[in-house]
Structures are given as C-alpha cells and as structure tokens.
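Q: What would this chain look like folded?
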Amino acid sequence: MNGMKMKMKNETQSNCKLCNMKQLLFITPNRMLSLPLLLLVFSIPCFPPCVSTISTGHFHVNQRIRKSNQAVLLPTNNNMNPSEVETLFKIMESMSSDHAWRISFPNPCNSASSWPGIECKPGLNDKLLHVSRLDFGSPPNPSCKSTATFPSLVFTLPYLTSLFFFHCFTQTKTNISFPLLPHISSNSSSSLQQLSLISNPALVGPIPPQISSLHSLRILTLSQNRLSGKIPVQLFLLNSLVHLDLSYNVLTGPIPPQVGSLRKLVGLDLSYNSLNGSIPETIGHLGLLQKFDLSSNFLVGNIPDSIQNLNSLVFMALSSNKLGGKFPQGLEKLQSLQYFIMDDNPMFIPLPEVFGKLMKLEELRVANSGYSGIIPPSFSHLTNLSTLSLQNNRLTGEIPVGFGSLCHIYHLNLSRNMLAGIVPFNSTFLKRLGRNLDLSKNPGLCLSPSEAYGVKIGVSLCGSNRTASTIQPFHKSEAAPSVLCKSFFLLCSILGTILLPHFSIFHLVVSVIFPFFYFF
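A: My prediction, written as structure tokens:
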C-alpha cells in the first residue's frame, strides 16, 4: 500500500514538472528547443494538481514556480486598479444584462477572458492595465437593456479614450450627464478623445455645457438622437476637435459664431435640426474644413463671402433651408470642391456661371430653387461631373451642346424648366444614361428622330406629337429580311420535313449551311 502511494506521488510530481515546463515555454519565447522535444512536452497532459495561478476573489495571484532553485514569476495581464474595476462593473450592471459581469468576467482586461466591447492598455506610469475603449449596443458588443440610462460614471475612467453608444438608449428617456465629483470640473482634463452616441431615440435634453471639460476630445458624434435646445457655446472651447457631428436632432437657435474657434476642424455636420439665423461669417476661419453640411434647417440670408477661405473644402451641402440672394464672392477659389448640394432654397437669381470654374466638381445639385436665365455654357467644362440636378427651376434657352461630351456624367435631370430647342444628345449618350436622364416638362424641347432610342426622357420628337419613349428606331439587324434570307428559311423548312426523323443529319446540314447565310 505504501509502495502504491509512493508511486502515485512520484507520477504527480513528474506531471507537475512537465506542466511547469510547458508554462515556462510560454513565458520564455526566446528559449530554443528542438522540434522533437517540443512535441514530446506538449503531448503529455497536465493534470489538475499542477496549477499556474490561484484565483482569489476577483483577481489572480501570481504563483512562483521553482526550478533549479530559481524562482520564475509568471506574468499576468489582468492587474487593474480595484477602484477602476469596481467603477467598470457598476457601469456594466446599469447598462447591460447580457451577463452577470462580476461572475462571468471577473478580470475585465485579462486577454484570455475579456468581454466583448472593451479594450485595455497599460498605464504610462504604472504596470497596471486600464480601460481605454468601451462599445455598447452594436453586435458583438454588449446590448443595452430597456432601462439603461446614460452612465455618467464613464467620465471617471481616467484612461478611457474612446466611448461608443449605438442604438442603446431606445426606451427609457435619459440625457447626457456628468458626475458631480470634484475631479470632473471645467478646469479638469480628460483622456477621452472620441465620444459617439448614434441612433438613440430616448437620448433627450440639451447638450450639457460640462462637455467642455473633455479637453482631449477630437471626435464628437451625437447624431440621430433627440437632443434639443441650443448648441452650448462651451462646446467650442474644445479646440482639439477634428470632427463635430450633431446631425439629426432637434437643436434650435442660431449657429454660435464661436464655431470659428475650432481651427482644427475637418468635418462639421449640423444637418437635420431646427437651427435658424444666418451662417456666421466666422465659418471662414475653418481653413482645414473638408466637409460642411448644414442641410435641412431654417437658415436664412446669404452664404457669407468668407466661405472663399475654405480652400480644403470638398463637400458642401446647404439644401432645404431658406437661403437666398446672391452667391458669395470668390466661390471660384474653392478648387478642391467636389460636391455642391443646395437644393430647395429660394434663391431666385440667375444660375451662377462661377460653377463652371470649379473643375473638380463631381456633383452639382441646385434643384427647386427658382434659378432663372440660361444654363451657362461654362458648365460644359466640368469634365469630372457625374450628377447634375437642375430640375424645377425657371431655366430658359437651349441645353448646352457641350453636355453631350461630359463622359463621366451618369445622372442628368433638367426637367420642369422652360428649356427649348433640339436635344443635343446622340444615341450613344442616350443609351448610356438611360433612365437617369430626365428632360420632361420642358414643352419647347424636342429630340431629333435620327437620335431617338426609345428611352423615357419625356421629350417629343421634332416635327411630331409622339414622345421619344414610344419610338423604336429600325436597326440594321431589325431590317426586313432579304430575298436570300427568305430562300434560306424555305430551304430549312423543306430539309426539316425530309430529315426530321433523322434529327442528327438535319442538325449537321443546318450547321454547315447557316454560317454561309449569316454573312448576307
């Protein structure tokens, strides 16, 4: 009996030694072992008596493994500040019921067991791991329960750099709030660089002025929520902002002139709100701006002349406002502009010829705005143009002949104007655009019968009451069959009657004869 116990003890010790060898392999990547020895080590199982770490509470405690009288400390990557861990659990328990977070993920930053939607990084001045990113709402990240409200405690996580809430607050009304703690004040700093709250229909109320405490913020996206009230001027103290998106809310009041202080701004989107007043002249201070979208508001007045200073501007959208009057001076300086979208504004001026000088322009949309006069011939110089929408204006005269040479255009809408004359497009152009060409409701326009193709462009044939959409021109392939062709078909009928019982012979004869007639 004693011998059997001694044998079991020796086997356990042997297995533990092998288990420890495996673990040492992982912590000493530079150790060189031969392939046979490596396979031998990993082929032997490691039994439960040999454990590399001991779980105590919610944290792992390192265990020393002694070999050859030398202690080796196994590294762990789950060391966290206990107060930070407790804050994280409180946030998770208030937001999501996907898991029992304390039990399922006791070590949030442990790479072997970390939950989805969290990223961690080591601190600069300590050897601890800290939460650097949290994502909620979009799979595979934690979903938000119906009672979830905005967790103000997230602003107390000292190393958090990115925070995302997507379609998270959908039922219980909540608002953006900051904790009433001494270290969260207007004079404090924060490591947060990106804050995104998108598509949260229950996120209501104003944008809090305390948002100015997030001094490191570079990206602020508060889109598709139900935020209301005026844009706080404190927001424009965030002079590190590169992207600001407050679109699709119910914000009111004017655009604060302090917007011009965001000198690093590349993208500004305030579209689909209820903003009023005029576009501030200070917008011209944003020399790095590439995207500028104020669509679907109640803005009035002119586009300020200072807009000419936005040399980097690529995209400008001002549709569905109440802008009117003259266009800004110096618009031709915007040589980086590729998209100009300004439909549905009561402009009631001649169509500006200056657009023809914006050589990189790809989309020009100025429909339903009361423009009058002719279409400037200079528009034909826009060789990069892919979309031109001028419908529902008061344009007169003829379509510029050069439009037919715009090789990149795929969408052209000139409908509901007072254009006249012959459509200057050949059949190749008409085929290429197809249904993306709309010239309807221009009573004075007509299409040459020689160019009619049968697509619906809403224009009558010149000298006829028929529309081009009802005309199917004859092509050579559709011409009446020749006498020789009729003879061929007669021959096929005779052969078919004679040779039909012998189908393979009939098929051979036809396959030989048919290529001869094909060339006639």
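The chain has seven helices and 29 strands.
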